[in-house]
Amino acid sequence: MDKNIRILIVDDFSTMRRIVKNLLHDLGFINTTEADDGKTAWATLQAGVFDLVVTDWNMPGMTGLELLKNIRSDARLCALKVLMVTAEAQRDQIIEAAKAGVNGYIIKPFTAVTLKEKLEKIAQRTASAAA
Amino acid sequence: MNTAADDDIQADFLAEAGELVQRLGEQMVELERRPADRDLLNAVFRGFHTIKGGAGFLGFEPMVALCHAAEDVFNALRNGVVAVRPALMDAVLEAVDRLQTMLAATAAGKPLKPVPAQLAKRLHQLATPSAAPIAAPVAAQAKPEEPAGTGSVNISDDEFEALLDQLHGSGQGPGSAPPAAAAAPALSADTQLLEPSEEPETAPSIPLPAVDNGVRVDTAALDHMMNLVGELVLVRNRLKTLCGRNGQGPQSRAVAELDHIARGLQAAVMRVRMQPIRKVFARFPRLAREVARSLGKQVEVALHGEETGLDKNLVEALADPLVHMVRNSVDHGIELPAQRIAAGKPACGNLSLSAQQVGDHILITVADDGAGIDHELLRAKAVEKGLLAASDAARLSTQECLQLVFLPGFTTKESISELSGRGVGMDVVKSSIDAIGGSVRIESRPGFGTQVQIRAPLTLAILPALMVGVGERFLALPVAPVLDVCVLDPAQIRKLDRWDVMLYRNETLRLVYLHHWLGLPVVDGEPRHLVVTQVDGERYGFVLSRVFAREEVVIKPFGAMLRGLAGLAGATVTGAGRVALIVDLAGLARAGSAIR
Fold first, then answer.
1. Could you tell me how many CB contacts below 8 A there are between chain A and chain B?
2. Among B163, B294, B316, B348, whose CB has the most other CB atoms within 10 angstroms?
3. Whole-model pTM?
4. Closest Cα to residue B77, out of B49, B21, B36?
């Protein structure tokens, strides 16, 4: 899996951004940028080129779900991969995210191994979609 | 993650979670006022949620459990299935306190104790709606918020994969087309986001908006910076002295510029160290409310000037004295509702805390509209306790009587109440404020209330001082309490009790001879100066040889061996490069009283 993909980490809690960033770095993904809420993330996405967004769900201003919906309805960004970070794997909630076009979800707290599995699953689907 | 990075993240987490917990405390107070404010409920929920997330990664299980339980309560609140009531407030406040304790324990490297079963149970019960719903949901068309986990069904990874298959086609993912076409297994070139070959490595790098303008700095680094600025100020003072007072020419101009820049730098570093007093004030509405509740009283707390900034160390130093005064006000000042109504006042007492900058000082006022203090009672009490001779007590003015509460060992309530009177009293408040170079004063009108005023310097590191000489010694006197400087006329000195006194503007002034204190001989015929000061609400005249100039001095604390010397606050280096001791006027006046 390509380690050079550009990843945007979105969380309003800077400790959490650091944790996610460190885990991604441990996996070899070093091309990361951070945003502290959905609105900043949206502006960052407009200004740059990214391959993957790892976003928290529960944020003030613009939630992760709203960010996801915005991404999917934007002509340029609609193909962006989105991994949603959430506290619980609640069925109705995950279904809602899936309908909105999420690529995957991961439950806090997670390890580098789990994160790797999630990223690989996303990559697999993308690869077969491209095939 | 390696251990070093873990420690680093833990420190970050503690700092950030600490801020969140503090905000939660403030939001709890707001919540009492606006119990149905959905944004507020969401914010509180998010606060617990965020801490839970971080704590989970760091393995602080009791913190996760506690936040989770509190989260459930707020989830129930914002969904309108339960309502805010006193028992709920008490439980969530306890949760916030417990969280604070846990953060402190973690910071101290102690293992976390599990959440008390009783608290967990209470929170759980509060999150569960009773038989009938209490209120309609606060807002039906609310944003999709992440609900908390209780009682809902979780999804498994396999189910999610199946769901994606169903939505996007077997083994395929979303993101290939806008939502309208998302369900179709559309394949465009854009899909290869995770594939290296398709995306050129050399994508234009566009500057991204900065995430955060703030930087977290260790206070030790700030202290070091402040220290260096202090040294710089000392060198500047020396250069100024070397150039002479009315120096001309390029050197003087350069020194004048240096002076200007040093001043600016000093102000800038001080500003960095400034924190709004809100940090301390924020806890008081809650504290007052808790104390009031336990006493069956009612109190409304008003805060003014919370944005006033002062040095971080001072904010911390003021916290305990203020806590004590707020407790005192509610405990001893504000009356029971029935008494208040009988006195023609509203049942709910008012407590106001205000802060404002006055020159290079900050003035903090704690005022209540309670019963006030009977100064005659204080007078009698001081004599009865043997703190004051009856004749001395009789001479005290109303104002002076009130200041008696600051005497060590003075407690007016017959029975020491559990809340305010734990053997420590206003004397401790006073000594901690003295320690930071501040002063405290009390005013009161029986029946109308009491007001305590604290004056504190804005910073601890740099002190405007009056440079004086006693014999061959140099001393620095803090400028703030100095009222006047004049030449001493020995003919005016009279003896009163054990003191040498003189009349100064129709008031008796007690004299303190610095020569005596330093053990220096008084040279006959040498002209002497008098520095008139106001210390602890009393005027003293300090007698010394010469008065040089006003100078900004950098306080260098004494080493461990010299610390605690009565009458001395520290040392500094003068513009001439000599060491000068900094006098603690209040301490010196006290020492002077004790010797006699």
1. 207
2. B163
3. 0.51
4. B36
